[in-house]
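Dear support,

I submitted the protein below through the web form. The confirmation email said the job was done, but the results page showed an empty box. After a refresh the structure appeared. I'm attaching both so you can tell me whether what I see now is the final result or a partial one.
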Amino acid sequence: MQGPTGPTATPTAPSSGDRKRETMEHLASFARSRVGVEAYIEPPNSNEPVSILLIATTGEWTRRRVPSAVDARKIAGELGLPVYDVNFTGYPQRMRDWNSKNKPTR
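What the results page shows now:
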């Protein structure tokens, strides 16, 4: 009989440390592989917590949940990105243009 790592083991959810590491790796990879990336902080709403949105000069973007706006600013700082608050700046036109050009076909 095998122990807790064998086929009878109960799968466990990723730890918060694992999720944080995966989020940072994803955001860092996005920022390294695109030009002119900026960070935008999105406030929480009734359905979603605070999130950080990275937008490249092409308008391509990625979004990840973060614990707080303070954490979002810290992440942007660690990545060396300028950071803006969507409440004050809105979303950049290049993001809306990219979304329009890349809508899934139905």
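Response: this is the final, complete result; the empty box was a page-load delay. The first helix runs from residue 16 to 33.
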